[in-house]
Amino acid sequence: MRNIVRTNIVLGVRSYVYPIYLLVALAYGLMLLAFPKRYLPTMVPLFLLFEPGLVGFMFVGTEIFAEKKDGAIGALAVTPIDWRSYILAKTLLLSLLSVIGAVLIMAMGTRSLNGLPYVVVGTFLVSIVYTLLGIAVSAKYRDLDDYFIPILGVMVVSLLPFAHYHGYLTGEVWKVLYAVPSYPVIYFFKAPFEEIAAGTLVYSAAALLAWSGIAYQLAKIRFYRYAVEGLR
C-alpha cells in the first residue's frame, strides 16, 4: 500500500494533475475575494462543493485515462499488486488533496479558519464518495471526450441539492434530492456560517459513510471488469 501511494504521488506530480488540482483550489479562493462578505455564507459552500466533489470526479478520471494509456492499470492483471489497494490509495490521496484545497479556499476566501473542522470532515467524506464514483464511472471509458457527458450529468445532479437547500426547488418531488451525496455535505459546509444541529451533522456523516460503501462496491466491480480485465 505504501509503495502504491508513493507511486501515485510521483505520477500525479509528473502528470501535473495534483499541482493543477491545488491551483484550482487557489483560484477558487482568489475568486471569493471578489465577493462582499455578506455573500460568503452562500458562495463558500458552493465553491467547496465544486473543489472536492465535482473537480475530484473529473480529475480521477483524467488520472485513470493516463494510466490506461501508459499500461499501468493493465499491469495490475499480471502483477501481485492488489488492485483494491490501488483504488484505496488513489481515493485516500485525492481525499487528502481535497482537504488541502478546502483549507486554501477557506483561508483565502474568508480570511478566517473559523469552523474549519466542519469543512475538513465534510470535505474528506464527500471527496471519498466522488472519487470512488469517478473511478467507477471512468473505468469504462478510454478518454476525456467519452467521459465528458458523465461529468456534466454528475455536475447538474450534484448542484440541484444546493438549489433545494436555498429554497429554489420547493415541490414535494424535490425531496428525492436528499438521496444525492452532495446534500448531506452542505450542512458541514454551512456550519461555519450558521448554527447546524449536532444531530443533523451526525446523520449527514452517516449518509456520506453509507454512500462511501456503495461507491466503493461500484468502483471495485466496474474497475476490475473494465480497467483490469479490459472488458467493454
Any overview of this molecule?
α3 runs parallel beside α5 (116-138) and α3 (40-70) packs across α7. Helices cover 75% and strands 0% of the residues. The mean pLDDT is 85. It has one domain (2-228). The protein has helices at residues 2-14, 17-32, 40-70, 83-110, 116-138, 144-165, 182-190, 198-228. The chain has 232 residues and is mostly helical.
Shape: globular
Cα distance, first to last residue? Answer: 28 Å
Which stretches of 5+ consecutive residues score pLDDT under 50?
A: none
C-alpha-based Rg, rounded: 18 Å
Helix content: over 70%
Q: What would the average pLDDT be, to the nearest integer?
A: 85
Key attributes of the depicted protein:
232 residues, 8 helices, 75% helix, globular
